[in-house]
Design goal:
The complex is a heterodimer of chains A (about 425) and B (about 325).
Chain A lengths: L1 H20 L21 E7 H6 L1 H15 L2 E7 L4 H9 L7 E5 L3 H6 L19 H4 L3 E2 L2 E2 L2 E6 L1 E6 H6 L9 H14 L7 E4 L5 H10 L5 E4 L2 E4 L4 H17 L11 H5 L4 E7 H8 E3 L9 E3 L6 E4 L6 E2 L1 E7 L6 H11 L2 H9 L7 H10 L4 H6 L3 E2 L7 H6 L2 H10 L5 H16 L2
Parallel strand pairs in A: 1-2, 1-3, 8-11, 15-17
Antiparallel strand pairs in A: 3-16, 4-5, 6-16, 7-11, 7-14, 9-10, 12-13
Chain B lengths: L1 H12 L7 H10 L4 H27 L6 H6 L9 H7 L2 H34 L2 H16 L2 H11 L6 H8 L14 H28 L4 H9 L4 H29 L3 H6 L11 H11 L3 H32 L1
Helix pairs in contact in B: 5-15, 6-10, 6-12, 7-10, 10-12, 11-12, 12-15, 14-15
The chains are: A alpha/beta (about 425), B mainly alpha (about 325).
């Protein structure tokens, strides 16, 4: 009961804010980032995700400083948490005091672009815009205009224990999927005495992984036909891909089938698994953890697997291209300044800083340089060349938020549904969500 | 029982006048003054602002079709009449959620009231020091915020690091390593029910214990002398005296447990699977997860209507007790 009222109050509060600010015109002109802008006395509010704070705060500060030197405007960066940032964003955007620049995950963008939350930009104003990664840029495009700027990317790789590989007599990372399975068998055999050990850590609701296996088998999540989206998971090739992933998880993984991948690095760091499939930076997250996780300046401490990890592209499996983009709020009062700040934050200087911090740059032209500059992300840079992206549907974010794929995977792994039944169920859910 | 009586009397009767009690009462009965109304204006205003207004907006919203686009632009969403209601009521998922919420409430309330009463009876029998210890221990449980308790339970039952799996695994011949408690919804709901009962029992036990102190000792002694068994004493003497209080705490438990949100939300890490959805989480997911604000409102309105039945019973019971006085 109390909860109801809280929810209602939240809705009411957002409504109040919306009513106060009045309606905006649909046809907003494209915001330019070229030319000089005088921003003296103004302060930009920038919402970045927490990764920037923990990973590359120096890059943010440096870009903001160069921006302030050029325009005279100040920057106030607020770091957001992934768990609740969209709910917070919805409530804030409904009011009139909105953040000027907003970072969102690339799969989250289409919904907001369609809902007219962002203003159109002119890609030519930004460095490397000709070679932006398609998986990032695709989320920004809507009816011939571009509504956001690619920021950084992440590709998933195979991260493995070099010491256990050696013990099992494996000398190099697997080059084919069959080799990968053979290595898993060897690891399992070498650790027979440890009942908790699983050769591959694969949590049951890790849909980015499962869908990569679907893509590897030539399957797809959903296809657009005119205005209508159709789920493709029950197509034979998708089912084959799912089956391959399920076989892997069942045979080699001791992971909880109802968990997702959020804390996989931490669990892997306990030393009870031989390999896992994760973002390049998760290798570092598994080797070292903050002494006090609530303090961004806390010193790092080594885990059990420190110095025993290496990464390689997952053989024969294309990676999901994750990442983030930056958009200018349609309600922002400082659009020209916003564009300028984004220009500094996504130029080659900033990208070089991101590469140092183990993130992938926003452009294909920078990927090769990134691989040579920072050997740690070389496997990810390689993996980023063979990637896939979620359906570019306006309501795709609702499929993610609705836990459709996660529920399907859990149900299949725990035997509640067969692969075919689970895929059929997910297709129905995807159809009704995307075409709602 | 007297606990309830005295609170009713206190909130219902007293005015800040220094005049003798009887005089106040007579005067009020003869010439109704506006003073009580005046004094309750701040409360009424607060209620209207914090409860009434959102409630009205929620009802209005449930007859519109508010999506993210309308929310962000501030345009008035299109009116759709009863569309949201027909959609919700015609959806089998919704009815499954209703059934699950009702079943959970029934089971949890029965278990917590029985345990609460049991502990209250036990508290009458133990030595003073032990009783004090029990009260302090329960106060700690009571004082713990729901979210903290839920997170603690989440760690206890974690499949990789949980202490429950570790302990069960120590039993000879049992393999509970990496056992996931939420694969099987019966097991998962047992964990949630345990958490809710554990957190709910202190209030019940302490309140019922207070109620039990009002059962006249002579009555119980007389019954024992007449040869009544302890069970008969409980059924025919203690429970009838305790009945009004028991009714109220049970109704309150129903209201609290029916609105279950924090526990299943936190134990499922903020994304409860379909079989862990209750009415509260379902409406929240629809409204804020899927940006179907109007559909979520319609679900909330239906939930409020369902709850009104229980509330009406509760309020009637409160008045009844006042009348006996």
């Amino acid at each position: 009961m109390k909860r109801k009222i809280v929810a209602a109050a939240a809705i009411a509060a957002t409504l109040l804010g919306a009513a106060a600010c009045g309606s905006n015109d649909d046809k907003s002109p494209t915001t330019s980032a070229s030319g000089a802008v005088d921003g003296k006395g103004k302060t930009l509010k920038v919402w970045l995700m927490v990764d920037a704070q923990s990973g590359w705060k120096g890059v943010v500060d440096d870009a903001s400083k160069r921006f302030t030197d050029a325009t005279g405007a100040q920057v106030n960066v607020e770091y957001q948490q992934w768990a609740n940032h969209l709910t917070k964003l919805d409530a804030t955007l409904a009011g009139s005091d909105v953040p000027d620049v907003i970072e969102l995950g690339n799969t989250e963008f289409p919904k907001y672009v369609f809902s007219q939350a962002f203003t159109a930009i002119n890609p030519g104003d930004y460095e490397n815009s000709g070679t932006w990664l398609q998986g990032l840029k695709g989320a920004c495009d809507f009816e011939g205009k571009t509504y956001c700027v690619p920021y950084y990317a992440g590709a998933r790789v195979l991260i493995y224990r070099t010491d256990l590989f050696k013990k099992a007599g494996i000398s190099a990372a697997p080059k084919t999927y069959d080799e990968f399975l053979a290595d898993a068998d060897k690891l399992q055999a070498a650790q027979k005495s440890d009942a908790k050990f699983g050769a591959v850590y694969m949590p049951g609701q890790y849909w980015y992984a499962a869908m990569s296996w679907v893509k590897a088998a030539g399957g797809d999540i959903a296809k657009q036909d005119g205005d209508k989206w159709t789920g493709q998971l029950s197509q034979p090739s998708s089912v084959a891909g799912l089956q391959k992933w399920v076989d892997l998880a069942k045979k080699y993984s001791k992971a909880d089938p109802t968990k997702n991948e959020n804390d996989q690095a931490g669990i892997f760091a306990q030393g009870e698994a031989g390999m896992f499939y994760g973002n390049a930076w998760e290798q570092g997250a598994a080797e070292q953890v903050k002494k006090d996780p609530n303090d961004p300046n806390s010193p790092l401490v080594d885990t059990k697997v420190k110095g025993k990890l290496a990464a390689a592209p997952m053989p024969e499996v294309p990676s999901f291209l994750g990442g983030s983009n930056l958009g200018i709020a349609a309600k922002s009062q400082n659009k020209q300044l916003d564009a300028q700040w984004i220009k500094y934050f996504t130029d080659s200087t900033s990208m070089a800083g991101l590469v140092k911090a183990n993130a992938l740059p926003n452009s294909t032209a920078l990927l090769d340089k990134a691989a040579t500059d920072n050997p740690t992300i070389a496997p990810a840079a390689l993996a980023a060349k063979d990637t896939w992206f979620t359906p570019n549907a306006e309501k795709w974010a609702d499929v993610e938020k609705g836990n459709i794929l996660q529920t399907m995977l859990s149900d299949i792994l725990t035997g509640k549904k067969s692969v075919a039944d689970g895929a059929k169920w997910a297709d129905d859910q995807i159809n009704s969500t995307l075409n709602d | 029982m007297s606990v309830v009586e005295s609170t009713t009397r206190r909130t219902g009767g007293s005015t800040p006048h220094r005049a003798p009690r009887r005089a106040t009462r007579t005067r009020r009965r003869r010439q109704p003054s506006g003073l009580p109304w005046l004094l309750s204006v701040p409360t009424l205003l607060l209620l209207a602002g914090l409860l009434g207004y959102p409630l009205v907006r929620m009802v209005v919203l449930s007859f519109q079709n508010m999506r993210l686009r309308e929310l962000l632009s501030g345009r008035t969403p299109p009116w759709v009449g009863f569309d949201n209601y027909t959609k919700v009521l015609g959806d089998s998922t919704f009815w499954t959620v209703v059934g699950r919420t009702v079943a959970f409430t029934a089971v949890t309330v029965v278990i917590s009231v029985v345990i609460g009463l049991g502990i209250a009876l036990l508290m009458r029998r133990v030595a003073r020091g032990v009783r004090l210890l029990m009260i302090v221990a329960m106060m700690f449980v009571w004082a713990m915020p729901q979210l903290v308790a839920a997170q603690a339970f989440r760690w206890i039952t974690d499949s990789d690091f949980g202490v429950i799996n570790y302990l069960i695994d120590k039993l000879p011949g049992v393999n509970y390593q990496n056992h996931s408690w939420f694969v099987n919804p019966w097991q998962g709901w047992s964990v949630i029910t345990t958490l809710v009962v554990w957190a709910g029992v202190p209030f019940l036990a302490i309140t019922l214990n207070a109620g039990l102190t009002q059962v006249p000792k002579e009555l119980v002694e007389a019954a024992t002398v007449d040869g009544a068994s302890p069970w008969q004493t409980l059924r025919n003497i203690i429970l009838p005296i305790l009945k009004p209080l028991l009714t109220i705490v049970t109704t309150l438990s129903v209201i609290w447990d029916f609105g279950l949100f924090t526990q299943n939300w936190a134990l499922r890490d903020g994304h409860p699977e379909p079989e862990y959805q209750t009415l509260a989480t379902y409406s929240y997911t629809q409204a804020f997860g899927q940006s179907r604000y109007s559909l979520g409102s319609a679900i909330s309105v239906i939930t409020v209507l369902l709850m009104l039945g229980v509330m009406a019973f509760y309020i009637r019971q409160m008045f009844k007790i006042g009348e006996v006085d």
